[in-house]
Amino acid sequence: VAALERQIFDFLGYQWAPILANFLHIMAVILGIFGTIQYRSKYLMMYAVWLVLWVGWNAFIICFYLEVGRLSQDRDFIMTFNTSLHRSWWMENGPGCLVTPVLNSNLAPEDHHVITVSGCLLDYQYIEVVSSATQIFLAV
């Protein structure tokens, strides 16, 4: 359920790398459940290896959103495979957030718009970090 929730919000934010990772995770969970029910050790080993990779991916997401080291959300568009300027869906739709468009801005390309977001009860970075931390907790 947590992976499906995350998949939905990543689709809404056009976050292609997490969409792919979430899809692989959902498939691995299905195979892990099948391996458990059918007592297939190969499926369980595959699931165990996947969970190690899943924990690593979620640790990377936490580091990315907290901008640990040289990672920067303003410079790196890793989550969208450098194909667009989209950000997390939570950036504009977080709890209490007020989105205001900036008119006549020269900062954005012609097909994009510039916005300011204010008044959020919890910044989108922390929502993403909590989501990834939950995934790590469930994997462990």
TrEMBL record:
It comes from the Eukaryota. The keyword Glycoprotein applies. InterPro entries: Na/K-Atpase_Interacting. It is found in: Cell membrane. One of its GO terms (biological process) is regulation of sodium ion transport. The chain crosses the membrane at residues 16-37, 43-66. Keywords: Cell membrane, Glycoprotein, Membrane, Transmembrane, Transmembrane helix. PANTHER family: SODIUM_POTASSIUM-TRANSPORTING ATPASE SUBUNIT BETA-1-INTERACTING PROTEIN 1 (PTHR13084:SF4), T-CELL LYMPHOMA BREAKPOINT-ASSOCIATED TARGET 1-RELATED (PTHR13084). Belongs to the NKAIN family. This is Sodium/potassium-transporting ATPase subunit beta-1-interacting protein. It comes from Opisthocomus hoazin.
